[in-house]
Amino acid sequence: xxxxxxxxxxxxxxxxxxxxxxxxxxxxxxxxxxxxxxxxxxxxxxxxxxxxxxxxxxxxxxxxxxxxxxxxxxxxxxxxxxxxxxxxxxxxxxxxxxxxxxxxxxxxxxxxxxxxxxxxxxxxxxxxxxxxxxxxxxxxxxxxxxxxxxxxxxxxxxxxxxxxxxxxxxxxxxxxxxxxxxxxxxxxxxxxxxxxxxxxxxxxxxxxxxxxxxxxxxxxxxxxxxxxxxxxxxxxxxxxxxxxxxxxxxxxxxxxxxxxxxxxxxxxxxxxxxxxxxxxxxxxxxxxxxxxxxxxxxxxxxxxxxxxxxxxxxxxxxxxxxxxxxxxxxxxxxxxxxxxxxxxxxxxxxxxxxxxxxxxxxxxxxxxxxxxxxxxxxxxxxxxxxxxxxxxxxxxxxxxxxxxxxxxxxxxxxxxxxxxxxxxxxxxxxxxxxxxxxxxxxxxxxxxxxxxxxxxxxxxxxxxxxxxxxxxxxxxxxxxxxxxxxxxxxxxxxxxxxxxxxxxxxxxxxxxxxxxxxxxxxxxxxxxxxxxxxxxxxxxxxxxxxxxxxxxxxxxxxxxxxxxxxxxxxxxxxxxxxxxxxxxxxxxxxxxxxxxxxxxxxxxxxxxxxxxxxxxxxxxxxxxxxxxxxxxxxxxxx
Length: 638
Description:
By secondary structure, this protein is an alpha/beta fold. Helices cover 53% and strands 12% of the residues. The strands form 3 sheets. A 5-stranded antiparallel sheet has the order 6-5-9-8-7. The longest helix is centred in the middle third of the chain and has 46 residues, at 218-263. It comes from Streptomyces rapamycinicus.
């Protein structure tokens, strides 16, 4: 559209028209207008055109070389398109030129905005990098310097910036924008023009500072206006990401706390806290423990998949014992727990059964579908026996690793040595063996015994993670027990004997006799030694059953295991003793792991039963004399 310049732009009526009526109009003037040659008047009128949004200024009856210098300078300064032409200039031609130039201008702005959006939308960018990218683009677009001041920083030096020289605005002005008193402000600083804008939707605001060597025109103001919207949205998104991250961290800490309480026997407290998080889980009669192993890098992603798939019907926690494992506790309802294996979907379940089945089935399907995952599951246990369920799942996961199967449910465990020993004799020996620990305060003794029990099955670093202690604290507790009991807990025999003592100590004080309990030892007179216990008929029967599992393999596994135990678990020395290749020894050990349902390789290996069984049957005299003596004689000798 074409328009004409008003004869008196300073009148009140025409000022209103200029403010509202010139947008997108081309103002046409004759070349003999006096203000064209007056620098001050030219700047004033061209500034009015820029402010009102006029499409441009056309000067008739002149040539390009005859345009006054003041008009050229101010038109460039305020980004007002300037056209010149003869009297015969056609209006439609002018309209085409103006439309083409305005289209090019809009395309340039759109491209700038699209580049800004593309930069901040790129996946994998952190909030800081996206903000910096947007500031870089803005500085380039306005041909100046920009700076984003964070009000949470103690000093203005902690900020994102881009562009050329920076100008320090008055602190009082920045404070007013931060507090939300004003949304924008402008100052002149020598030859620089400075604008300040509030960023964010609620105070305290961030402050965007833009500095140019020339005045701000309509084009730059539009770019800045759109950039402030983008910055506000980006900062809000970053705040939401931060809030979400804090919420996830809090929930993760709560889940870990619930698991820690349950593993340490504080069942009622664990139920009270966990009931609000997982009501279905903590109202179940029994639970299963599932241990899932995967790479440490994939652990968080796998945990998220499990959480989404199980719909908060199972407790999913990073294992406190291993950094490459997830600890999953699922509910087990009465109709489901009667089976030793996960339920089948072939028969229609009851309402209670359906809840238990759906959780376990979804877990099994996920583990089956995701490459690289292996899972070991326990049998149903009361929540108070979560530690026992964890041990079962740990053994099942070991079997999954040995057999290369993805899913293994713990086999029904054969009765251990403690089941075959006379309860009175066994517990009397364990009490005497552990009596030196009575010198410790009760609370200290229990925490130390908990640490020692875990250290017999996991590495010191894993024990430190599980107990929330420093690894130096774990090492100090192990050293203290070693000193009081006169043991060397780096050796397999000493660890095996201490493991048996702790197992007997944990048994109920009055256990009824079983068919396997030898009646010859019912009445115990005097202090029994470990040698006496292992020579009893019950221990002998257990050892024959335990080592008899090895006979399923045609190879002479007993000979290899005897040499391996006698040499403290050293594979190289075992190969030299037996006279076979190193790989053969490892193959024998892996075969024995599957048959004995335990982990021999790794640190620490679960060799306790193997050591005791071999000594009981005389396959290898691996227990030194001081360990098989009565506790009092052993301590006197030490």
